[in-house]
C-alpha cells in the first residue's frame, strides 16, 4: 500500500473511535494519541492497530489498566482469537491526568513512548502492513490523533521521534528547544529561497514549527507564513532588518 504523507489529524474524536490510517502502516510512521484519562469511569482503555473495523484482526492491542498498581497489556488478535498476553508493569499514566502516546512503527516491532519516555517494545506477530485502522476505546477523552510520515527524524539518535518543546522569551523571535528534546530535523539542512512545502498532518494543538537559518549580510527583510490557499494568510511572521552590518 502506498503511504499518504498528508493525512490530517483526527481532532477531538469521540470515544469509542475508529478511523482509517491512509495508506496503512509503514516502516517509520509515527502515530501520536493525545488525550486525558478519565477519573470518573472505568479502569482501563485500549489503542488498537487493526485490519478493518470488525476488531477480529488486531496486529497490536495496547491496553493500559489502572488496577494492581497499573500496567499495560500488549497482545495480537487473529481471526477473533487472542494470543498470549505480554504485560508491562509500572504504568506511567494516572487517572484524571493528560497523556501523550507515540507509536513508532518499525520493521521488527512497535515502540511506544509514554509522555516522552520509551515504555515498551512489542515485536510484530503478524505483518504490520495489513493494518489500515486505528481504534481507541475505554475511559479516555481524546484531544487528537496525528500522523507523522517516514523520513522525519530527530537531530539526535533517540529510539523514537520526540516532541519539540520550546520556550518563547520576552524578545520577539527568540525561540529555543530544551536540551532534552531536540527539534525534529528534515533530511536536508538547506533549501533554496523562496521555499514552499506542505506540513505533514497539518496544524493541530501542541504542534511546533521552528525555522532555523542564517541571515545574509545583504538582507533587509525575511518572513514566513502558513496558509491554506494562495489567497489566505492566517499566520505570518515577518522580520525587518533595517540595521547596519559591519
Any overview of this molecule?
It holds the Pfam family Gal-bind_lectin. This is Galectin. Keywords: Lectin. The chain has no helices and 19 strands. It is mainly beta. Strands 2, 4, 5, 6, 7, 8 and 12 form a 7-stranded antiparallel β-sheet that branches. The protein has a 6-stranded antiparallel β-sheet with strand order 1-13-3-9-10-11, with no helix packed on it. It has a two-stranded antiparallel ribbon with strand order 14-17. A hairpin with a 5-residue loop joins strand 5 and strand 6.
Describe the largest sheet. 7 strands, antiparallel
Unreliable parts: 1-5, 153-188, 229-246
Number of helices: 0
Q: Characterize the overall form.
A: globular
Structural class assignment: mainly beta
Give the end-to-end Cα distance, rounded to a whole number of Å.
56 Å
Number of strands: 19
Strand coverage percent:
35-45%
What order do the SSEs take from the amino end to the carboxyl end, as H and E?
EEEEEEEEEEEEEEEEEEE
Binned, the helix content reads under 10%
Averaging pLDDT over every residue, what do you get?
78
Radius of gyration: 21 Å
Keywords: Lectin
Pfam families: Gal-bind_lectin
Organism: Piliocolobus tephrosceles
GO biological process, one term: negative regulation of CD4-positive, alpha-beta T cell proliferation
Give the SSE layout.
Blueprint: E1 10-11, E2 17-20, E3 30-37, E4 45-50, E5 58-65, E6 71-78, E7 81-82, E8 86-89, E9 98-105, E10 109-114, E11 117-123, E12 133-138, E13 140-148, E14 153-154, E15 166-168, E16 175-177, E17 184-185, E18 221-226, E19 235-240
Antiparallel strand pairs: 1-13, 2-12, 3-9, 3-13, 4-5, 4-12, 5-6, 6-7, 6-8, 9-10, 10-11, 14-17, 15-16, 18-19
InterPro entries: ConA-like_dom_sf, Galectin-like, Galectin_CRD
GO cellular component, one term: nucleus
Domain Galectin: 17-148
Amino acid at each position: 500500500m502506498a503511504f499518504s504523507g498528508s493525512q490530517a489529524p483526527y481532532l477531538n474524536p469521540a470515544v469509542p473511535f475508529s478511523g482509517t490510517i491512509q495508506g496503512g502502516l509503514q516502516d517509520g510512521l509515527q502515530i501520536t494519541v493525545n488525550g486525558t484519562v478519565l477519573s470518573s469511569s472505568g479502569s482501563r482503555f485500549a489503542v488498537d492497530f487493526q485490519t478493518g473495523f470488525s476488531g477480529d484482526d488486531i496486529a497490536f492491542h495496547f491496553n493500559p489498566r489502572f488496577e494492581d498498581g497499573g500496567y499495560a497489556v500488549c497482545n495480537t488478535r487473529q481471526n477473533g482469537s487472542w494470543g498470549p498476553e505480554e504485560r508491562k508493569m509500572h504504568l506511567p499514566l494516572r487517572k484524571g491526568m493528560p497523556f501523550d502516546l507515540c507509536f513508532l512503527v518499525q520493521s521488527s516491532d512497535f515502540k511506544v513512548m509514554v509522555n516522552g519516555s520509551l515504555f515498551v517494545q512489542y515485536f510484530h506477530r503478524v505483518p504490520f502492513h495489513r493494518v489500515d485502522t486505528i481504534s481507541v476505546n475505554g475511559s479516555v477523552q481524546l484531544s487528537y490523533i496525528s500522523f507523522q510520515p517516514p523520513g522525519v527524524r530527530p537531530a539526535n539518535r533517540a529510539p523514537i521521534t520526540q516532541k519539540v518543546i520550546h520556550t518563547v522569551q520576552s524578545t520577539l523571535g527568540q525561540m529555543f528547544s530544551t536540551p532534552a528534546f531536540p527539534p525534529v530535523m528534515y533530511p536536508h539542512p538547506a533549501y533554496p529561497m523562496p521555499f514552499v512545502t506542505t506540513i505533514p498532518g497539518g496544524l493541530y494543538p501542541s504542534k511546533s514549527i521552528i525555522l532555523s537559518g542564517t541571515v545574509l549580510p545583504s538582507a533587509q527583510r525575511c518572513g514566513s507564513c502558513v496558509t491554506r490557499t494562495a489567497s489566505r494568510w492566517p499566520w505570518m511572521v515577518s522580520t525587518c532588518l533595517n540595521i547596519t552590518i559591519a
